Amino acid sequence: MSTPAAARKPRRDARENRAGILAAAIETLASDPHASLDAIARCAGVSRRTLYGHFADRDSLISELIANGAQRFNEIALRIDDADAPLALARLTALLWHEAAAVQVSAAIALDEAHVAETAAALAPLRGQVLAIVGRGQGDGSLRTDVPAAILARLVEEAARSVVTRMDAASPDAAGLAVRAVLGVAGLSWREAVALIAEHPELDLESASGTEGTD
Amino acid sequence: MSTPAAARKPRRDARENRAGILAAAIETLASDPHASLDAIARCAGVSRRTLYGHFADRDSLISELIANGAQRFNEIALRIDDADAPLALARLTALLWHEAAAVQVSAAIALDEAHVAETAAALAPLRGQVLAIVGRGQGDGSLRTDVPAAILARLVEEAARSVVTRMDAASPDAAGLAVRAVLGVAGLSWREAVALIAEHPELDLESASGTEGTD
DNA sequence: ACTAACTTGCACATATGCGTGCAAGTTAGC
DNA sequence: GCTAACTTGCACGCATATGTGCAAGTTAGT
């Protein structure tokens, strides 16, 4: 027996629908964290009733979103191993940016009273990593020391969240903007931030257009 | 006749209740922008029905909150006249901080889909002032120029909003934190920010502009 | 082509929030 | 102490959202 109890493999269309619902939830909740299940279902091209066939209730859906997102973010965060703290922050921000869509939901959901605790728990590894980086940066003098590490970590997180959720993600250099904001809050002068970014093209802050660095 | 048409002066308890409702709305909505009128009424120690005696509907209440807040913020913003852009930003942030409670609601409400437009309109003068300061700072090289003025103004606003809404307003140096975050995002290194703050004790940060309160 | 899995629409129950009407109670203020 | 102003509770009607049961339709997979 392949499976000890229950659970024959679900049908193809069912799996597609389930994925579609999750995707629709991300898309819909990103712009409105209070969107109804009906809105999500319609966005997924599925009936509301079907949604309940895949998720027990609203919380189940949200929880799965949080779990999925958190896992991706944590994996990214734990892969960062630059010794240089500012660079680590920059890279972390840049990498997370690529998950923009997912990040937006998580960021939005994280603001929702009902799920703060759950999100906080799920993102613990990421937060630990940020705190570690910040602490290291304060130790070697590369980051500001006029703010306690714990608060600075929080400040950095909020700066990133702000840019992700409140600034136009489609703007020319959105990823770069996020990195600049984070580095600024972390204590670097803007010229230092610009220099750091210039020295590390592998940060891959895209992008097309020629809004060139310029200053 | 003191009053030409209509409007006999309302009774005292009525005026008190009205004010109480507004205060309760600020307190309640600050923590949960989606709080029900019932919650607000209860917080004001008044029946839900009474609330409707003072405000036609939810929007009327919110609108008055926005109008009140915006007026105070705009007045403060337009009083700033420091030639030095970083200092102007610092002072603006510090002054607005004193309106913390009111700022929190406005900041929270401003995030609400239904009232963004209204808030944006009401805060136009403040935003104009920020843009002017930022432009000036870019012109004289005291603020970062790697980001267009319009976006930088936005970034500054979001940084301030973040700290106000998301960081513990009761923490030791919350006002200073806001100023530091704003200056950091605006391009100053943290040492420059610290120096600026140190040179201008009249910013009145650190400690206690009086919530010495207790209850 | 047959069957089990899946989807769907509809009806239903429940809950919450908004906004209103009204009759009975309180209170401010003269 | 009288009266108008104000508050209150309760009853509605309305709208939206969640979650479930069920019978009838589709569809995937063998």
Keywords summarizing the entry:
homodimer; 215 residues; mainly alpha; DNA-binding
Estimated share of beta-strand residues of chain A: under 5%
The largest β sheet of chain A comes out as:
none
Unreliable stretches covering 5 or more consecutive residues of chain A: 208-215
Supply the helix-strand structural class of chain A. Answer: mainly alpha
Taken in chain order, the helices and strands of chain A follow as: HHHHHHHHHHH
Helical run tally of chain A: 11
Characterize the overall form of chain A.
elongated
Work out the number of β strands of chain A. Answer: 0
Oligomer: homodimer
Radius of gyration of chain A: 20 Å
Mean pLDDT of chain A: 90
> Cα distance, first to last residue of chain A?
67 Å
Helix % of chain A is 55-70%
Q: Which pair of protein chains has the largest interface, and what are the residue counts?
A: A-B, 35 and 32 residues
List the helices and strands and how they pair.
The structure is a homodimer of 215-residue chains.
Chain A: H1 12-31, H2 37-43, H3 48-54, H4 58-79, H5 85-97, H6 100-110, H7 116-122, H8 124-139, H9 149-166, H10 174-186, H11 190-199
Helix pairs in contact in A: 1-2, 1-6, 4-6, 4-8, 5-8, 5-10, 8-9, 9-10, 10-11
Chain A binds a DNA duplex (30 and 30 nucleotides) through residues 8, 10-14, 17, 36-38, 46-50, 52-53, 56-58.
Task: Give an overview of the whole structure.
The structure is a homodimer of 215-residue chains. With 215 residues, chain A is mostly helical. Chain A has helices spanning 12-31, 37-43, 48-54, 58-79, 85-97, 100-110, 116-122, 124-139, 149-166, 174-186, 190-199. Residues 208-215 of chain A have low confidence and may be disordered. The structure holds a DNA duplex (30 and 30 nucleotides).
